[in-house]
Specification:
single chain; alpha+beta; 6-stranded antiparallel beta sheet; two-stranded antiparallel sheet; 8 strands
């Protein structure tokens, strides 16, 4: 019996998308950004028709944008198999990584945290109002939660992105909030008052967690890292099974270990930021 092969492009996975609405009024740039995000999200070859279907464009318009991006080195065509990310994006990535490899600087702390908790640990940095994973340390066991570097963790649901938002300047938060209220529904802040109350709680406790947004059986808890000027530098996130999340959130030993890792990481960056102590509940 023949087995039907799945379509290379079906519904887009919300976990791998980046928000695109509310970014500005430059339509051509916004469309080009959406195409590059789609190629990064898929991780393989994408046809002109796939781009048109997934982004709601005509095939001729999608083809025109892809042709322009190919001339700039931002995408490249692989024969009849479709388009993928181009050499210029790879170059930018290598340059950025070589200038400030935060993952290498903090790697021993991240690995130690993963070994202590036997859980997957992520290091993420700010990406506008959201966050992007730059380092993923899989749990040191046979079954672990697999998270790839480059994954965008988006507001309003991601605890990592909430940490990023909470420790921006007040002016920057106000600027971002208008944008967040204008995004597509899956990435939109629907109730400003409720959202800002959540942010105020984060600013008091320096920890944020979520249970199981995508019904995949795991949640996350995140906390900030600061630099010598007390500015947010990165976020450390621990992925944990939903069963570990009780009514009061993550187990206290997870929060303690995470905060201690953030404290040590901040000190390595010459910060003397004071983190709260977490006594036993």
């Amino acid at each position: 019996m023949s087995q039907q092969m799945p379509s290379p492009i079906s519904e887009r996975d919300l976990r791998r998308q980046s928000p695109t609405e509310g970014l500005g009024k430059i339509e051509a740039v916004a469309t080009a950004t959406a195409i590059i995000d789609l190629l990064a999200e898929r991780g393989g070859k994408v046809s002109v028709q796939d781009v048109a279907t997934m982004l709601g464009l005509t095939k001729s318009r999608a083809s025109r944008h892809l042709s322009n991006l190919e001339q700039l080195g931002l995408v490249q065509l692989q024969g009849s198999r479709g388009y993928e990310l181009g050499w210029r994006l790879m170059r930018w990535g290598h340059i950025a990584a070589s200038r400030f490899d935060l993952g290498a600087l903090l790697d021993d702390y991240l690995v130690a945290l993963g070994n202590t908790l036997q859980l997957t640990v992520l290091l993420a940095t700010a990406a506008g109002g959201d966050a992007v994973v730059m380092r993923s340390i899989p749990a040191p066991q046979a079954i672990h939660i697999d998270v790839k570097p480059g994954l965008v963790l988006s507001l309003p649901h991601s605890p990592t992105a909430r940490i990023v938002f909470a420790f921006q300047s007040r002016e920057r938060r106000e600027e971002l909030l208008d944008h967040l209220c204008a995004r597509e529904p899956d990435f939109r802040v629907a109730d400003r008052a409720v959202f800002m109350k959540q942010i105020a709680d984060i600013q008091r406790h320096y920890v944020c967690w979520t249970r199981d947004k995508f019904n995949l059986g795991h949640g996350a808890v995140a906390a900030p890292i600061f630099d010598a000027d007390h500015r947010l530098c990165a976020v450390i996130t621990v992925m944990l099974p939903s069963a570990m999340l009780g009514e009061d959130g993550p187990p206290i030993h997870v929060i303690r270990a995470l905060i201690d890792c953030c404290r040590q990481s901040s000190r390595r960056l010459n910060s003397r930021f004071h983190f709260p102590d977490y006594p036993a509940r």
